[in-house]
Amino acid sequence: MMGPTAFACLLVWLPAMAYCADSKPNIIFLLTDDQDVTANSLDFMPRLGQLLRREGTEFINYFVSTGLCCPSRATIMKGQFCHNTKIFDNGDLNSAINETGHLSGGFEKYVKLGLMNQSTVGNIMQAAGYETKFCGKYLNGYDDKEASFVPPGWDHWQGMTDTAFYGPHFSINGKLKKMNNSVYQTDYIRDVAIEFLQRTKLRTKPFFMYLSPFAPHAPATPAKRHAHMFNDTLAPRYDSFNPNDSIQSQKPSWLKKLPPLSQKQINDIDRFYRNRLRSLQAVDEMLGNITAVLEEQGWLNNTYIFYMGDNGQHLGDYRLPGGKRQAYDTDIRVPFLVRGPGVPAGHQVYDVTQSVDLLPTWADIGGTDMSASDAVDGKSILPLFNLSRSESEVFRSVGLAEMYGGSSNMGRAYKGLPDFWKNRFWNNTYQGVRVINGTGFAANANWLYVEWCTGEKEFYDAAADPRMILNKYETLPEESKTKLAALVHQMGSCVGSVCRSASMMQTSPALSESLTDDLACHNPPNLTAEALAHYRPTYPYADSDIVLDDHLHDHWV
Q: With 70 as the cut, is the pLDDT of residue 508 above it?
């Protein structure tokens, strides 16, 4: 005889599986690499437009806290800002200047700190009863020689160890597999996901699947079937694109010294932009294919799909040829869209949300409450799907932006300029806050405020200046300067519950009375200002992120 629990659990039988209709929802996370919002990439993805924009909810003010691959991905895994994970970059300065043992970031530091053994996405979701699957890019520095490493928390592991668009390499549960050059990376990840969803074995657990293709990261090689598309499309020419001297001189540090982009650089940017859009077509197809399989299997109504970019991309903005790592919306505002149970269709959320919110949200879906935990700096976004929520119920008013280290790889065109060393500009360490609809002095705000390790400061009123070209810091009242500095200092050093309080503009009064400019520049160890000023590089150096320079390189990591 069946008990009440069995009656309460409606089994839906299909050819491939059986599932419980009142079981925990499934979760799919699709993470792209370097996908912008400000250059309108989402507008070129028709399936995403239908399945996520029209049938789900789009978060308009979603910001990564660090606009760089590895720190951003570590934040996703841990639910912590990078000043807490200590993954500051992609490993740019690991053992720099012959200083053995120095680690600035990347997979090597992540493992050395033991971050994979603590509260991570895989560990939390596995403990909540989920079958966990990972396929795609993991962390920068996870390469072929590390293929035997499988992080805890993943039942099925296919971490990418070589990100080639054609012929990628994967660690399949600890065993290296090199695909032949006919295999297109995004299509392979799609096929792995579909095979996982179509398994004939009866599924007894909800699943959490993390998919991470390399597109549209440089070189953004498209699938051959998409190589003909967008032949006449140009990168957007907004006010921030290759600005004149009067605008560029308002930037801080090394940025204000950049020369105008050459016509060759502009042509490279346009070619790169077209390839970015082309490479995203396979991602768009993957989203459509996966959603169709979910519907066929009867899981669509009980599955959340989260779509996000790990950081944005500037494309000629502020005379920067291409890349990320800056505090402007080009680099930190990223796509974030969700569909699933209880998620309103065709809805837009304007509250400030950040990548630290992902882990506590997924934990919440799986029945684990992390709202009082200092192991995460963010909080669950599930309340934001409640359309009856009062406008007075503000989720967050302040988002953190932080970067510790150098610029993106800028290439040979800039050798000889001050602060330039090994293809990067240094003195690029900053902490900032993105303030939207705050309280008191920040009511109705839409601001970016940034403090640099050089002592320079930036303030942009994005409501009037959405491309962030007019630095208005000197025009601010002294009281506003003090309060903004207090927000930066508290957010830039916060942990757990303090982050959640500061993000609501609840700062400690004592901070306003004892602020000091103590943000150190995370430059190469033992590299003096004099050395930076006179350094003349010898080429070539290995590229570690985007370069748009004398030609489009075949591979950037």
A: no
